[in-house]
Amino acid sequence: MDEPNIKSIPVEEELKGSFLDYSMSVIISRALPDVRDGLKPSQRRILYAMHELSLYPPKKHMKCAKICGDTSGNYHPHGEAVIYPTLVNMAQPWGMRDPLVDPQGNFGSVEGDPPAAMRYTEARLTHLGGHLMDDMEKDTVDFVPNYDERLTEPVVFPAAFPNLLINGGTGIAVGMATNMAPHNLIEVVNGICAQIDNPNITIDELREHILGPDFPTGCTIRGMTGIRDYLETGRGSMRIRGHAEIFDNGSREQIILTAIPYGVNRAELCKRIGELVAEKVLPEISAIRDESDENTRVVIDLKREARAQVVLNNLYKHTALETSFSVNMLAIDNRRPRLLSLKDAISCYIEHRREIIIRRTRYLLRQAEIEAEKLEGLLLAISRLDEFIQMIRESGSRDEAEAKIRAYSFTVEAAQALGILIRGQPSVRDGRYYFTEVQSKHIVELRLYQLTALERDKVKRNYDDLLATIEDLMDILAKESRVLTIIKDELGVIKNKYGTPRLTQIVAAEGEINITDLIANAPNIVTITHRGFIKRTSTLEYRLQGRGGKGLKGMETREAATEEDKADFVEHLFTASAHDYLMFFTNTGRVYTERVYVVPEMGRTGKGRSIKNLLNLRAEEKIAAVLRIEAPEDGDPWSEDQFVFFATKDGTVKKTALVGFKNIRKDGINAVNIEEGNELIQVILTNGEKQICLITRNGMCVRCKESDIRAMGRGAMGVMGIRPSEGDYVVSLTAEDESAQLLVVSENGLGKRTPFDEYRLTNRGAKGVKTMNVTDKTGKVVAALAVGETDELMLMTSKGQSVRIRVGDIRETGRNAQGVKLMNLAAGETIQDVATVIADEEAVAAAVAPVEADSAEEVSSDEVVSTEEPEIEESGAEDETE
């Protein structure tokens, strides 16, 4: 028999309807963050429970068990065990760019270690976590009943900062998922302010402020395409690479990992590297150690024959040291899931803050008007104090007194005479001012001390201030521009207090864009040490000094690894603009090429980074010479009309067309064939028609025509350019310049400049003529180069001291002179390298007068050698020629 209340329905329709209801419940009320405050309901309820417990800094931390218990019992009835992981996640600095919870105790680790039980750990809100709930008590957001309707909870937080963009978020719903990348607080605030100023701003214009994700673990994003995609459409994928540095500890090379990609388990990464070593995929690794504390430091020891750059590339290829991150900017907007672009997300936040400020202003206006109403009544009552005291005294009860006061009235003119602002309240009837219920209650509660003249003046001042506040609040509500200005001002306060520098670097993928368009072509000083540490420093960091100064600290060199090992010293120093190319020639005759801006930039006293982080050098290779190729604004720098001119230690020279080095592979190419026992000394760029000067350590010089030396291929060995005597060898190669002189510098800090005409033109292969009178006082010749009167020099010593001087301060002398003092040296210190400085307008403007005696880092005036030091010559010395 059929039951009257039972209906037959198709099972597929019931399943479809039930599943859709379930899906929407999961999407809206559980799994996805709200676009306005960036929080999922579980996160919001935990933070609100902490708000109810007043866990704001600097108050003490409270047991997480209490926080989770209150959250579960009052707002989120799903058990403390599922609430605690959410609380922990909001406290982990490697998971959130700016954590919302301040932890105390074991909250897990980046290796995946679990946190301690909630009964052992404690927490409170961070400052930023507290700012999410700013002004919540001022009717800025709606409240709804909790699950059992005993209490109420906020639907959304006021969110004084854009949490969704700054901390990102993840969530897996039914049929959709969120994976938001974190961003930098300073950049996001700047982007929001820019969009407020220009609502029609484009994504490209926003990207000038918001560069891209800023992950809490640092690392590097490789490629701009994925960033542009998700900023424009809400979806995109990026490659993230950890930070690694190649380091030579004296006995062998090491790869040191200092940052890992976001979301990668460090312990699992180390385990995977160990597995690859065991599987012979990375046989060059001899050991791996995790030496991390609060900062990541994983040390990978390499075998002696290993090429560090090759091993590092394989680590990127086979492990999570390089991984991908897919962005899906899906969030709840107006109770619907929505895929957001960057501009959409910012617009939603601006609209949310606009509503918050309007609601807060209305609340403050209501409160101010109520207080003004009380003070109006109080001012009127005080003006006729005796009558009111009499009324209250004759009343039999409080209610009777209040009734008598409400029946009492003033003329509007009398009220205005007392400074009362009549705004048409319901209390004004028939031209008379009557007291309201609020005013009558307030008058009855009047305290005796308020009857003094001083208190009456204070009430009047307070009333006048309230009227000004009311006028200002009404102006805010009337003008949209004021609301938007308040949004920007409040965000600016948050940015200034809690903004931190960007942690994640963003670099262009190979071939993606012309990265040089994004980099200023500024002049730099590049230094390379004997042990292969390289850096670049802006020329503006070096102050121009007078000849003979002691100089400023130019580079910290690393100490020797062992007592037997010689301490590091600067071996190469030269100037180059950021867009220029650098050709690195090794002692084995190979050449590598990189742009100057790729060289790590450091301060004047920075120690530099191993050049093996820059070049894929072989184990036996060492940098012997570096050539700068100037990058023209238009055109190809690899000209067929220019030549690379080589000089080796034994006097062999060779020239090869520059265009032959145009396509240099990452692993380098052969540049010159060098015999065993010989080594490359210097490389210069010529036009094929210059005159070449070769200078030896004992002060001999050959000046010959470049045209006497035919161009050869990259694999050729070359021809003899100068024949040094026994025990002598070539130290410098330079080309003659009609407007320049030849500057020769000795290791004891003496130098001189001599016109090229004083050196006889000889055939290549000659023994040469004397270019400096080498004595014990001068020391051996260190370097020689062509300089002009207006050039500036940078001198670097074996201990890392540097001095920048004008060539014009060095007096011109004969070729056989000893020269004048260029720099004062400490005991045991020698000149190591000399280079001309590329002077630009900014550098000249920043240069200062010769040093005064008021700097602790500079030599005092009495230590500067006089520029009038006499020239010393030996007239009887004979020239040696071919």
UniProtKB/TrEMBL annotation:
Name the SMART domains for this protein.
TOP4c
Which GO CC terms are listed, alphabetically? cytoplasm; DNA topoisomerase type II (double strand cut, ATP-hydrolyzing) complex
- Return any one Pfam family short name: DNA_gyraseA_C
Region entry Disordered: which residue ranges? 849-882
What top-level class of enzyme does the UniProt entry assign?
A: isomerase
Q: Which domain of life is it from?
A: Bacteria
| EC number, as in UniProt | 5.6.2.2
Q: GO molecular function: any one? A: DNA topoisomerase type II (double strand cut, ATP-hydrolyzing) activity
Gene Ontology biological process? DNA topological change
Q: What is this protein called?
A: DNA topoisomerase (ATP-hydrolyzing)
Q: Which organism is it from?
A: Phragmitibacter flavus
Its encoding gene is what? gyrA
